[in-house]
Amino acid sequence: MSRHDSYSTFSRRDFMRLGAGAAFAVAGGGLSGLSFGAGQTTLACSFRSLTNPYYSAFNKGAENFAKSVGLPYVPLTTEGSSEKGIADIRALLQKTGGNLVLNVDPNDSADARVIVEACSKAGAFVTTIWNKPKDLHPWDANPNYVAHLSYDGVAYGEECATKLFEAMGGKGGVVALGGIFSNVPAIERKAGLDAALKKYPGIQLLDFQVADWNSQKAFPIMQAWMTRFNSKIKGVWAANDDMALGAIEALRAEGLAGQLPVTGMDGTQPGLAAIKVGELVASVDWDPYWLGGIGLSMGLQAKDKKLDVASMAKDKRESFCKATFVTKANVQEVMARASKPAADWNNVYARVSGPVVYR
Length: 359
Description:
alpha/beta; Rossmann fold; 2 domains; Peripla_BP_I; Ribose ABC transporter periplasmic ribose-binding protein; SBP_2_dom; signal
């Protein structure tokens, strides 16, 4: 079996897991089966889905942080539904009597305001990841809204596009796959792509379509593009690894996997494996394992009054964090780290790179 065959087997198996991880998620309807100790703080994370390797790593970090402090942990998945995400959080707030620390990646940016208000009213502590409105800030709800953590999607979207355009020789047609329109990361990463396009007049954007961060939706879009544009396509930009892998599977069906450069983001293990064998040119590792735990750590420290959030500098509460741009040159190092994830969740400032920039 060749190295490409080895990766292909893994990739197809991962790609065809149509919701296998969902069985591990705890939805609002399952909360009745959980028991909560009197006076014991419950930790919880709310995120999109366990079928995505990025969120699987995020959840694992949260689980391991909870184990490290000896507290119960509840994962909640939105499955792409804002209504479900908000309803599950409200149910858990009621079940715990507000004795809750929540780390949430809202399904849509507008959801963050509703979630923060519900947590503040119940006396719970909440950290948001990635998504929130520009006019909502942690210091608006002291001390319950602890922090907002994100990454510079514009800068990394542009860096991935630049790497892709260089691999294309600076000319030719490119197709692009975006995340959910109302997601801040999707908006920022698309802005980064647009910035790179302005610097490369020889690159033509043939089409941009939203695939909702999902490989299953990216696959038929890529198939349709190959029929529509055929040999005009010289590269594929994707706003996350999962969509990039969906595009690669469509390319594989035509014998083109590894022949056309593709870029993604998220630094997932399947994405890193694709870089290793040359089917993905670049990705960005946000370290979701660390994110899953640090949001809970900040919330718990605030709840236990070990962290006085009201006195913290604003750029420490609404922060861009450090990420790793991944190519074939450093993928082995990143893969080794991902295979044995570790994090210092006590040092809440360790990976802060600066304040969130609103463009």
